Amino acid sequence: MSCYIRHLGDILDELGLTNNKETRKMLDKEIREILKKEEARCPEVWRDVKERIHDLEQKKKLVSELKKRVSKY
Question: Which sequence spans correspond to the domains of the chain?
Answer without folding.
Answer: 5-70
